[in-house]
Design brief:
CATH topology of the largest domain: Beta-Lactamase
InterPro entries: Cro/C1-type_HTH, Lambda_DNA-bd_dom_sf, MLTR_LBD
Shape: elongated
Protein name: Helix-turn-helix transcriptional regulator
Strand order of the largest sheet: 2-1-5-4-3
Number of helices: 12
Pfam families: HTH_31, MLTR_LBD
CATH class of the largest domain: Alpha Beta
Order of helices and strands: HHHHHHEEHHHHHEEEH
Length: 276
């Protein structure tokens, strides 16, 4: 069995990596004759920017069991110039956001399953926060993969991208797709610290795939609500799609993913995938 999130240690590591990536020149800090031994800002500089003591920053970065208040988390977010997604991640690690009991769906609610089918001819699928694929229509099955042929544990978008032989070369910009997927999964990991199944998935990915392990170690956090992918389809060739990710209010841990052709040539390719 794998352990779930250790928020104290992850908060410590996250603060260190965010501090070390900053350029002191961006803050107008005076140059020093003595060169910096480590990249980024010093702890005392972060402490001053956040309005907290140096000792407090040291103890946070050493994982010594502190639980910063919401005000301190906000001050650190501003001092470290976190992106909105990174700020949310830090609040999650500090346990400063109200939480619902984790009841992550493993099956699609009937209403959402019908909606996925009704979105035809647009390719669409429903996933949970773990990237488990819960429902899909025929268009996306013909575009990506016939999910009906897979055992349930393999119906996971990240697993397919990393482990399925037929998907290794499917994305033209594979590195970006994997990197963004990892950053999205990290945000879900912090928001669901009791989800042992998600923790087991991440352990599997980091153990079996060096690319995933490398990107996971960078601690990037980004939630993609829309984007662009270029696909290398075995039957119709290269095509480009835009995707949109929607979260139902009734089931906020689920994601409705809808694909649209990015150009006329790609639309023609999608049309050729339709059954005659």
């Amino acid at each position: 069995m794998t352990s779930t999130v250790d928020p104290t240690q992850e908060l410590a590591a996250f603060l260190r990596t965010r501090r070390e990536r900053l350029d002191p020149q961006d803050f107008g800090l005076p140059s020093r004759r003595k060169p910096r031994r480590t990249p980024g800002l010093r702890r005392e500089e972060v402490a001053e920017l956040a309005g907290v003591s140096i000792d407090y920053v040291v103890r946070l970065e050493q994982g010594r069991g502190l639980r910063p208040s919401a005000d301190v988390v906000e001050a650190l977010s501003q001092a470290l110039r976190l992106t909105p997604d990174e700020r949310t991640y830090l609040f999650d690690l500090a346990r400063q956001r109200p939480r619902n009991v984790d009841k992550s769906a493993t099956t699609a609610p009937p209403q959402l399953a019908r909606l996925v089918a009704d979105l035809s001819p647009l390719p669409a699928m429903l996933m949970n926060h773990r990237y488990d694929i819960l429902a899909w229509n025929g268009e996306i099955a013909r575009l990506l993969l016939d999910f009906d042929t897979l055992p349930q544990p393999q119906r996971n978008a990240m697993w397919l991208c990393l482990m399925h032989p037929g998907m290794r070369d499917f994305y033209v910009d594979r590195e970006r797709v994997v990197r963004e997927g990892v950053a999205h999964l990290r945000a879900a990991w912090a928001a669901h610290p009791e989800d042992r199944e998600l923790a087991d998935r991440i352990t599997e990915f980091t153990t079996r795939d060096a690319e995933f392990a490398h990107f996971w170690g960078e601690r990037d956090v980004k939630v993609n609500g829309r984007g662009h992918k270029v696909l290398r389809h075995p039957d119709v060739g290269v095509l480009a799609v835009h995707f949109e990710v929607l979260r139902p209010l009734q089931d906020p841990d689920q994601r409705l993913v809808i694909y649209r052709a990015a150009d006329d040539e790609s639309q023609s390719a999608l049309d050729r995938l339709r059954p005659r």
